[in-house]
Structures are given as C-alpha cells and as structure tokens.
Design a protein that fits this description.
The protein is an alpha+beta fold. It has 2 domains: about 120 residues, Small Protein B, Chain: A (Beta Barrel), CATH 2.40.280.10; about 30 residues. About 35% of the residues lie in helices and about 30% in strands. It has a 7-stranded antiparallel sheet with strand order 1-6-7-2-5-4-3. A hairpin with a 2-residue loop joins strand 6 and strand 7. The longest helix is centred in the C-terminal third of the chain and has 29 residues. It is extended and about 65 Å long. The relative contact order is 0.20. The mean pLDDT is about 85.
Length: about 180
Amino acid sequence: MPKEWKKPKMTEAERRKAASDAKKTIARHKKARHEYLIEDTWEAGLVLSGTEVKALRMGRASLVDSWVEIARGEAWLYGANIPMYAQGSWNNHAPTRKRKLLLHRTQIAELAQKVQAKGYTIVPLELYFIMGRVKVEIALAKGKQEFDKRHALREAQDKREAERAMRRYVRQARH
C-alpha cells in the first residue's frame, strides 16, 4: 500500500461510536492531589444499580469525603455521593451507600499489603464513563503534612510566574 494513500473518511456512525467510546469524566476529587501524595493509581470498575447509572449519566456525583477500604478480599468505595435519580420509583438507590469495586484479586492483595504500612490510604481520584461503563480511578496515597501542602502551592505559583515571564520575554523579542 503506497504512502500517499489516505485513510478513508469516517462515516457518521463511526464518528458517533468513537465519541461514545471516549472517556467522559463525571466527577473529580480535586483536593485529593493537594491533600495526598499520590504513589500509584489503578482503574476499577464499579457495581451500580440502574438508577445510579442514570443519575451518573446526568453528570451528578461527588467524590469529596470518599475513601476505599479492603475487607475480606474485596474493595469497597465508601462516602461517594450519587444523588437519587429524579424519575426513579420506590426502588431508587441510597445516595451514599457503599459500592463494590471490581479489581483483580492480585490488585486487591497488593493494595491491602500497601495499606498496612502506616500513613497510607486509598482515595478515589476520578469517576468516568469509558466505552459505556462506569470506572473509578483510585490511588494509593500518603497524607501530606501542612508544610508539604504550602510547599506544593509555592512551587506551583513559582512555575506559573516563570511561565509568565518567559511569555513576556518571547513577546518582547518578537517586536
């Protein structure tokens, strides 16, 4: 096949399929990266009821004050708030119930072993749809001290100022 041949254009159906398979973020725990030092991350599936999925499709969820625990070889997400589905009937879900995470047995064992170390916890970072399935990104994290948080904020501010100075310098050099 010669190099000058181009790929055929995507049909409307192919474009829609690609768009539906793309990652769509539902909720993000923004303060987690500020509060914790992230060591490692995993992607886990989530066991949900029908009304929970419908509420998530409306883009409503919160991971603030949520955490992950490992009990008897299973991983559970606690404190994640998925509000009740407005059109739900009497079998609507409880907003902050514990939800089972779908991970491989080896991943659960690895997380359980690392959490035994002092100061480590498992926090959810992001909740998203990928290929029509709800996934949660969880992280093994160690809590930061107050001075570490201030140091991280100072570094980010210094980096922003340096980038601004570089942009000003480049703009002046062009004129």
